[in-house]
Amino acid sequence: MQADGVLTSVDLEAENQRLARETFTEAGFAPQRFRLIAGAGLEVMPRLTDAGYDLVFLDGDKVEYGEYLDQAIRLVRPGGVIVFDNALWHDRVADPAQRDPETTAIRELLQRVANDENLRSVLLPLGDGLLAAQLI
């Protein structure tokens, strides 16, 4: 991160926010280098600055992944990267018999990203899968 960069974290869980603040402080990060916002992603993201981010990492309600993508595309600057966690969703995404709402939403996200000519993407089989897409 550049010297004047700021890490922004949005999380519903107060305990996660407390632990993040504690970790950043113990690691020696100045308070102005990170911003912790309590709230739901789809409530907070619309209030964040357009093209103001180099990286947006998303891990939330899988059914909302398509809406997260809409917001993330607006938030990252050209060359920025959007990353989704759980892109393989416990190996369910590759199994066509799995049709639960979460698995279906992730499949739709993967297809949408693959078909978007403004995104260059890669699906990494790390952990439960990471989808990384660069805004061209």
From TrEMBL:
SUPFAM superfamilies linked to this entry: S-adenosyl-L-methionine-dependent methyltransferases (SSF53335)
Keywords, sorted A to Z: Methyltransferase, S-adenosyl-L-methionine, Transferase
Matches recorded under Pfam families: Methyltransf_3
Protein's UniProt keywords contain Lyase: no
Domain of life: Bacteria
InterPro entries to which the protein is assigned, alphabetical: Cation-dep_OMT, SAM-dependent_MTases_sf, SAM_O-MeTrfase
Protein name: O-methyltransferase YrrM
Organism listed in the record: Aeromicrobium panaciterrae
